[in-house]
């Protein structure tokens, strides 16, 4: 590479010309990486480009902070256990407006930006939709110029890498920070000291009032690492603050001085385990304890940082809620409510009433589930051991709350038991969702159906008490990541036709509607889709060694493997099609490629069995000469953000087939539609609103509605054996699991499915929906066989998806809950 004299750094960072970027890039190769004349690897190029990009972001971050300070702006603090950021380089280059220049700069130096971007590993800080939603929200906050900051844990190991061994999922460590991350800025000077464990010493103050003292605690140290978040247009850079855990000193010197060196080392390692890995398995006591400590660690660090920032303003804490909004992303951060109360009462000597007034007005809570088993609870004995003072605070919150419940509904002990933050039983439990609702001024669901079911089915008592507290904020995704970055071919086509305003205002996509009937636009749209499918086909071959036909209908279900998401229903339909071909001699209307991706939780036996079943079915079908030109089935391992960015633009049909009333919202459904896939789905989550937006004729809906399922559950009127006996095709599919058709080398492996569905009640209504699902797929095939019709529908999905931008969601939160604005 040529040598260029590096000029003044400030000028260098502000220079976005190709020459300026070249100087900055070469400067970092030499001075950040210590490379001068020797061979430069693609990883070296990635690190130098990232440092070049980060320089510009840091300058903008300093300017942003000054702008907020000058405006005395109210700040949003978004607390989440997960932030599924994926790769950052491409997104940052797009948002800074220097993507094309960087591409040209590298080309001039004999390098390729696409190869450089492939060197980046995904920031594995999340599990699924919850963490990806948080990432989209940060992008929208920065693009809208709003002072919004994320708080979470700087996991050293993210969610596991998924590999396949004889069709089974195996989990490998995902050490995503093994080579460091150029996007994380360590801030050791802003470390937080966090007490944990210990006991309560019951005492009184000088006036005789009860004054409990939290004593004997251990200290954890939270070291913040900031990941700059640049908004599109490069005006605003906020940050995501992630905490790593360290022990309070190199060793516990008391233990060390007693001569037990190894015990001292062991304690240090135990402290630092807290930020080691995302989501420990919590089916045994030690795992549950670590998870609880994780949740407390990051929320306590966040509150320390938030209060410290507020105190710099010199204002009284009586104004805290006027300058700070804290959003709880599900129940995992809900300990923040008890922590703020503890800070105000114990450290700031506020009266309980004054502290509670501030706390309730500061917090807002987003609920992300309708599944009772997903409502987080903690055993009281565990809670008392880990957080004795916080348990006292929660008991006092609950005592006062139940007193209020009793005043509204006197003589109704059942209601008090249902609403109590403490669940009675053989072992008392702390209900974190109840704490979140009681301690917040706003409770929102994430789709219209979800919010309605929360109010009418899940937490009815709370809605009756505080109807004004409940609201809906339908989820959204950022079009900058999921269209501009993930699908550059389509993004360019859209911009050529309607301009680039859609990048910051997704409602402008509506201007594409007239082109849905344009043969030239349809042809260009189809060519882009085919290129995306060819790219995915190559990824599939590289990872599975299966060849798939890009001309076939790509039918994709990519999401966490879970019984309620019904990958099994998809499998049932594939088995049905296979048997129609090999036993009935039928030909499919169009060739199909069924693509699955997603991880199963390590301890979730049924979900892991589904992965094995998919791989076994793929092996049988893909090697059967009778189906070779008609059906292909593949499971693509290790689903992650960067893989999603390849899969989603390639989809023709998007599988969103959860049991109605089970999916809170979904965001994959939005991403697929945004990229021109038609949805086949139930009336669940945000599918309902997507249907309203794109038009009933441009989405394929099947199956029972949520209210029908609720009724069948309540009346116990659903018997899967009825469907088995009455429908020969359903019976044939079910009987295939009772044989060794898909497990010849492992006899009897899938008989449990037959038994679970038929003898244990089919909890997720697979057989009730299967015939409707088969019929819906027939409709999809007929329409795909007419390219002009299908393409028109696909274009209209893109044109009418604007509502589902996270920009719209964030504006609603900002106006209706947080009371913040752009600066």
UniProtKB/TrEMBL annotation:
Enzyme Commission code: 2.4.1.1
Sites bearing N6-(pyridoxal phosphate)lysine, chain numbering: 671
Reactions performed catalytically: [(1->4)-alpha-D-glucosyl](n) + phosphate = [(1->4)-alpha-D-glucosyl](n-1) + alpha-D-glucose 1-phosphate
Cofactor(s) needed by this chain: pyridoxal 5'-phosphate
Record's subcellular location: Cytoplasm
Function: Allosteric enzyme that catalyzes the rate-limiting step in glycogen catabolism, the phosphorolytic cleavage of glycogen to produce glucose-1-phosphate, and plays a central role in maintaining cellular and organismal glucose homeostasis.
Origin superkingdom: Bacteria
One Gene Ontology cellular component: cytoplasm
One of the GO BP terms on file: glycogen catabolic process
Name recorded for this polypeptide: Alpha-1,4 glucan phosphorylase
GO molecular function: glycogen phosphorylase activity; pyridoxal phosphate binding
Assigned protein family: Belongs to the glycogen phosphorylase family.
Keywords in alphabetical order: Allosteric enzyme, Carbohydrate metabolism, Cytoplasm, Glycosyltransferase, Pyridoxal phosphate, Transferase
Stretches of the chain forming a coiled coil according to its record: none
NCBIfam families per record: P_ylase
Class of enzymatic activity (EC top level): transferase
Upper lineage: Bacteria, Pseudomonadati, Acidobacteriota, Holophagae, Acanthopleuribacterales
Organism field: Sulfidibacter corallicola
């Amino acid at each position: 590479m040529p040598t260029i004299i590096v000029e003044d750094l400030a000028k260098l960072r502000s220079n976005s010309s190709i020459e300026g970027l070249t100087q900055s890039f070469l400067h970092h190769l030499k001075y950040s990486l210590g490379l001068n004349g020797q061979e430069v690897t693609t990883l070296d190029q990635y690190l130098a480009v990232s440092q070049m990009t980060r320089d510009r972001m840091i300058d903008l971050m300093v300017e942003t902070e000054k702008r907020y300070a000058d405006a005395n702006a109210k700040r949003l603090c978004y607390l989440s256990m997960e932030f599924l950021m994926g790769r950052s380089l491409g997104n940052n280059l797009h948002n800074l407006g220097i993507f094309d220049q960087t591409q040209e700069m590298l080309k001039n130096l004999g390098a390729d930006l696409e190869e450089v971007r492939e060197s980046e590993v995904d920031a594995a800080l999340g599990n699924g939709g919850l963490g990806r939603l948080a990432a989209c929200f940060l992008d929208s906050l920065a693009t809208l110029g709003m002072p919004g900051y994320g708080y979470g844990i700087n996991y050293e190991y993210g969610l596991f890498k998924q590999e396949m061994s004889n069709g089974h999922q195996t989990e490998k460590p995902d050490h995503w920070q093994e080579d460091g991350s150029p996007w994380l800025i360590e801030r050791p000077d802003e470390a937080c000291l966090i007490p944990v464990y210990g006991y309560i010493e019951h005492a009184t103050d000088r006036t005789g009032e009860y004054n409990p003292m939290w004593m004997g605690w251990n200290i954890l140290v939270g070291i913040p690492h900031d990941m700059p978040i640049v908004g599109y247009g490069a005006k605003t850079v906020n940050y995501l603050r992630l905490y790593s855990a360290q022990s309070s000193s190199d060793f516990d010197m008391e233990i060390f001085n007693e001569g037990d060196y190894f015990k001292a080392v062991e304690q240090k390692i135990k402290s630092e385990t807290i930020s080691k890995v995302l989501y420990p398995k919590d089916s045994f006591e030690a795992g549950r304890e670590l998870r609880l400590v994780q949740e407390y660690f990051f929320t306590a660090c966040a509150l320390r940082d938030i209060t410290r920032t507020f105190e710099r303003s010199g204002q009284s804490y009586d104004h805290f809620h006027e300058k700070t909004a804290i959003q709880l992303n599900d129940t995992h951060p809900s300990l923040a409510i008890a922590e703020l109360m503890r800070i105000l009462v114990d450290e700031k000597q506020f009266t309980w009433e004054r502290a509670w007034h501030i706390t309730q007005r500061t917090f807002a809570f987003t609920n992300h589930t309708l599944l009772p088993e997903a409502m987080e609870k903690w055993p009281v004995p565990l809670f008392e051991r880990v957080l004795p003072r916080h348990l006292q605070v929660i008991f006092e919150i609950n005592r006062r709350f139940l007193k209020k419940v009793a005043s509204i509904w006197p003589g109704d002990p059942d209601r008090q038991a249902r609403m109590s933050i403490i669940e009675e039983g053989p072992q008392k439990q702390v209900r974190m969702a109840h704490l979140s609702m009681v301690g917040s001024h706003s409770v929102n669901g994430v789709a219209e159906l979800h919010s309605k079911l929360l109010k009418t089915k899940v937490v009815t008592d709370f809605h009756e008490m505080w109807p004004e507290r409940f609201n809906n904020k339908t989820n959204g995704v950022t079009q900058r990541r999921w269209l501009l970055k993930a699908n550059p071919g389509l993004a360019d086509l859209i911009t050529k036709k309607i301009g680039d305003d859609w990048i910051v205002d997704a409602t402008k996509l509506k201007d594409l509607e007239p082109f849905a009937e344009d043969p030239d636009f349809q042809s260009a749209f189809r060519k882009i889709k085919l290129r995306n499918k060819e790219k995915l086909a190559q990824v599939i071959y590289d990872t599975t060694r299966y060849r798939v036909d890009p001309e076939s209908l790509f039918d994709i279900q990519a999401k966490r493997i879970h019984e309620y998401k019904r990958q099994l229903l998809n499998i049932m339909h594939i088995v049905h099609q296979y048997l129609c071909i090999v036993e009935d001699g039928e030909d499919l209307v169009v060739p199909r490629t069924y693509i699955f991706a997603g991880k199963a939780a390590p301890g979730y036996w049924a979900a892991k069995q589904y992965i094995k079943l998919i791989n076994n079915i793929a092996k049988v079908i893909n090697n059967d000469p009778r189906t070779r030109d008609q059906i292909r089935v593949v499971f693509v391992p290790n689903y992650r953000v960067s893989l999603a960015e390849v899969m989603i633009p390639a989809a023709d049909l998007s599988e969103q087939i959860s049991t109605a009333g089970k999916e809170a919202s979904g965001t994959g459904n939005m991403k697929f539609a945004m990229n021109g896939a038609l949805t086949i789905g139930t009336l669940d989550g945000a599918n309902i609103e997507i249907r309203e937006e794109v038009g009933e004729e441009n989405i394929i809906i099947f199956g029972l509605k949520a209210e029908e399922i609720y009724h069948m559950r309540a009346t116990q009127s659903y018997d899967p054996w009825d469907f088995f006996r009455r429908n020969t095709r359903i019976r044939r599919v079910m009987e295939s699991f009772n044989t060794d058709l898909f497990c010849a080398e492992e006899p009897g492996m899938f008989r449990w499915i037959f038994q679970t569905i038929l003898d244990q009640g089919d909890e997720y209504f697979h057989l009730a929906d299967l015939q409707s699902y088969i019929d819906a797929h027939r409709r999809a095939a007929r329409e795909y066989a007419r390219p002009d019709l299908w393409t028109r529908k696909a274009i209209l999905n893109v044109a009418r998806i604007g509502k589902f931008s996270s920009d719209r969601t964030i504006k609603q939160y900002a106006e209706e809950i947080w009371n913040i604005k752009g600066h």
